[in-house]
Amino acid sequence: MVSNVKDSGNCIKDGVDQTFFDEFDYLFDGMRQGEPLSVRVLSVFNVTKNCFKQDFRTNIRKFNLLKTIFEELVGAESDAALSLCSCALFYTIALDDRQIDFSKPSLDLLVKILKSDEERIQKSVKPSKSFTTFRKRVNELFAAELKTAEFLDLTNITSDQLILELLIFLTVPTSQIDYKEEIRVCGALDYYINAIASILNRVDKGNRLTNENCQRFLRIERYLQLVENLTYMCSDNQNYTVNFKKKSVIRSLYKVLIATLSTIHSNKGSKIKLLNRSKN
Is the pLDDT at 86 greater than 50, yes or no? Predict the structure, then answer.
């Protein structure tokens, strides 16, 4: 007599699971740190592409594969193309589950990517051929799959945009206080407080209603949204934010308010196209 016979439903389920593992293992092998950089970048992009299929990204979370992925992406900040594709992957995995708790090493990686990208910009590092190629592929992939994304410029997706929006929806008011504090300890709060001041310095002093100025104000608003999320009901983060660099955030907020009011009063009745939306 044959024992432990599975019913048809379990057989189908096991078959589906095995199909996922076969596909994931094939893609994941190319992501490993021992592989050539070009292979790793392509593999991360292909995993991202597959993660636009809900079943695929659900299975990544279901089988606790996030940690495995992050471990192989340690050091991704050293290459712009790998950084961008990694951020695209993180963003996509979290599309329909905004309660994912990214581990401290993964949060560290996100902040390192932010700082490395900023350093490349400051040093005017010429984009590599690989980065140019994959930036175009990421833009095309997101434009095709997302159609619209309220706070992403689908014609020019950057690591900074992806990390910002990822952190915003990971730090909703209901998220754990300890998690918010961990994000601060990793350096994300420092980065975005400094970023607000940096963007303010590039706002047109003539208060002209240009597309560039509107995009700067929108970016400041998103940075402030993240700061609000990280400080909501979190006294340690509140105290840290207020006292950071001799209360620089308070001075920045005052400047934001003055610049916003001045621009509004100087351009009443004007309209500007901002990220495919018409703004009064």
Answer: yes
Residue 98 dihedral angles phi and psi, to the nearest 5°:
-90, 15
The number of CA neighbours under 13 Å toward the Cβ of 228 is: 11
Q: Where are the alpha helices (DSSP H) in 33-158?
A: 37-51, 54-62, 66-72, 80-93, 104-122, 129-146
Backbone region of residue 187 per phi and psi (left: phi > 0; alpha: psi in -120 to 50; beta: other values): left
Phi-psi region at 166: left, alpha or beta (left = phi > 0; alpha = psi -120 to 50): alpha
pLDDT of 12 reads 47
Instruction: Give the CA distances from residue 41 to residues 2, 79, 84, 184, 190, in Å, rounded to whole numbers and listed in that order.
Output: 48, 9, 9, 29, 29
Task: Supply the pTM of this predicted model.
Answer: 0.87
Which residue reads 């560290």 in tokens? 108
Residue 172 near residue 98 (C-beta atoms within 8 A): yes
Arithmetic mean of pLDDT, 138-148:
92
CA distance 181 to 240: 10
